[in-house]
Amino acid sequence: MAVRTEQQLATFLTGIAQDRLYAAWRLAALRGLRRGELAGLRWTDVDLQAAELTVAQQRVHADGQVVTGPPKSAAGCRGVALDAETVRVLTRHRERQEELSAAAGTRWLDSEYVFTTADGTPLRPDYLTGRFRRLVTASGQPPIRLHDLRHGAATLAPAARTDLKVVQAMLGHASIVLTADTYVSVLPEVAHQAAQETARPVLTAASALGRQLSG
């Protein structure tokens, strides 16, 4: 799996901020939603005032068709907290969707889904994959898959000192072992920070003794 550094992710997200599905990419990158969970998200699952959403269903491909069903596991049914900027992004996304609905008139399909086509039809999961791939290509950045954004969210959260149990709940994992062993990588800058923080108390103690640890 590929993981963006904080700077790379910021560059990528700011570069695609005008894409009409920007809210979906942001939820994947910062909150770790799966592709099927994005495709299955409804406005009834989103509480903008409380700054949270509920993952209650997903839309996935099965036998050549798109089917709607429960999340991947029981733990996948979860509440996900949202930061203030993501709430603003989702609010603007809803306003634009209402503008599309007004323009489409009777052609609009009132599906209640958060991410739809220009006529309100729920998006196919593979459409999300294809659109994301085109955005990555146009950005000129190293290749990254849509699912890698979820992996990146799991990596950035511990880097921000988020407890691993909170990360587990955010991702909807039944086991914290899966969260720790499979999805959490160490960003280079975090590794360097850890090295500095590990050495600091020893250096401080040596300084108190009036000594230096240099060779």
Shape: elongated
How far from one another are the termini? 40 Å
Order of the strands making up the biggest sheet: 1-2-5
**How many strands, what sense, and barrel or not for the largest sheet?**
3 strands, antiparallel
Number of domains: 2
Please explain how this structure is put together.
With 215 residues, the protein is mostly helical. The protein folds into 2 domains: 142 residues, Intergrase catalytic core (hpI Integrase, Chain A, Orthogonal Bundle); 29 residues, no CATH class. Helix content is 53%, strand content 9%. It has 9 helices and 5 strands; from the N terminus they run H-H-H-E-E-E-E-E-H-H-H-H-H-H. Strands 1-2-5 form a 3-stranded antiparallel β-sheet. Strands 3-4 form a two-stranded antiparallel ribbon. A hairpin with a 4-residue loop joins strand 1 and strand 2. Helix 6 runs antiparallel to helix 7 and helix 7 crosses helix 8. The longest helix is centred in the middle third of the chain and has 21 residues. It is elongated.
Keywords:
215 residues; mainly alpha; 2 domains; 5 strands
Brief characterization of the structure:
This protein is 53% helix and 9% strand.
Secondary structure blueprint with pairings:
Elements: H1 6-15, H2 22-31, H3 35-40, E1 46-47, E2 52-55, E3 58-62, E4 65-69, E5 78-81, H4 84-104, H5 125-139, H6 146-159, H7 164-171, H8 176-183, H9 188-208
Antiparallel strand pairs: 1-2, 2-5, 3-4
